[in-house]
Fold:
Amino acid sequence: MQFIEQEFDYGTTTALVALHVGFVCAIIYGYCFGFYTISWILAGIFIVGAGYGVTIAYHRMLTHKSFVCSNRTVRRVLIYFGGLLQRTKSWVANHWSHHAYTDTILDPHSPYVPYRGGIKGWWHSHLEWLFWKYIPPDKWLNHPDLKDPDIVWEDRWHIVFVISGFFLPALIAGSYGILTVGSHAFFWYGIDAFFLSVIRTVIMLHVTCSINSFGHMVGWKAREPNDRHFTSDSSRNNPPLALISFGEGNHGDHHLYPGSARIGWLDPSWPIILFFEKLRIFRDVKRPSLTH
Ligand SMILES: [Zn+2]
Ligand SMILES: [Zn+2]
Structure:
């Protein structure tokens, strides 16, 4: 079922199908041959990079402006890693829509509209919404924040960044193969890291999607301290999800304090933000009490 008046997005759908076909091939490859240690190390680096890129840079810094990054290199590195999977401009604009219209027809990925939860609602909020061209309201597409030079930079190079997420690990692992085994090892070390990059990308995609689906369906609602009333929208706190999603899984707390740089009590991104704050690279870091 289509979500309001939306065109089918052939480009994104084809890419998602290809990615999942690649995932199955990569699992079969891994089952038959296993993966080299260098591929695992690179996958770990890219998982942490992409995780923090989306949570710290895309979500907290660019979308909610919960802190300011004064170092251009750090800012761009974080945005680059976020860009391995998702385009900054649409990510930020879609997320503004999600917060402004949570669980209404204008929410790009609500499990409850147009479906009323259940498997269909879960599927729509998890991945199916990406099959349709969601156009955020003009007020956000033309928002001055989206003219941020680093957002424009990511938007221009997005496809290159996505491709680099697969080929950069392959190139590094291939070069490592040449150095440790010999020139004939380049291909096998490269293909090994490439396949593990596909697996890593699909896992990261589903972790991100889980915030939109499970983050609004499984867990408990948030409320202000000393307040009997829970948040009125469907957002939930889910500690296991928070742990694997770099803190985003305490989604109920996030809807309660969207401007806070810290999300809930279990937030693996928070020590990193504090670290950069100590270095004076992140400034004006907003705590929950400062966001009202
Ligand atoms: Zn939400
Ligand atoms: Zn948010």
Notes: Residues 149-180 form the longest helix (32 residues).
